[in-house]
């Protein structure tokens, strides 16, 4: 596949996924007022995910189209900028008595080391929520890579 075709295909995939990301949560907010088919019940959702709530694609044809299109995620992090963490600063340590992020035992949240890592993690979460399956992260571009 030529570089131009690959770039065009990636643009179309991203545009489509962004569209789903934008319309999914918006329609969910409206639906929560009266329709509970997306969440089971209005009481199931407490708002904690806010705009990062990735509602599964319900249209079977559209869902299959996305699954056929997106086969892997490629985010080259070799030269990515390291993520700044206030929790690693002396000011934080002076205020709280320790440095670094702490998570409760059993936490499954992943703490990224780079800005691109944060973007990759969110893209993985979004695709898993929208498509209902985990899209693998690969080191190199191939057909179906996002």
List keywords for this structure.
mainly alpha, flat
Chain-wise SSE layout:
Elements: H1 3-32, H2 60-69, H3 90-96, H4 115-131
How would you describe this protein?
- With 146 residues, the protein is mostly helical.
- Helices cover 44% and strands 0% of the residues.
- The protein is built from 4 helices and no strands.
- It has helices at residues 3-32, 60-69, 90-96, 115-131.
- The longest helix has 30 residues, at 3-32.
- It is flat, with a radius of gyration of 19 Å.
- The chain starts with a helix and ends in a 15-residue tail after the last helix.
- Mean pLDDT is 75; it is low at 1-13 and 17-42.
Nutshell version of this structure?
The chain is 44% helix and 0% strand. It is mainly α and 146 residues long.
β content, as a range? under 5%
Oligomer: single chain
- Terminal Cα span: 14 Å
- The helicity comes to 40-55%
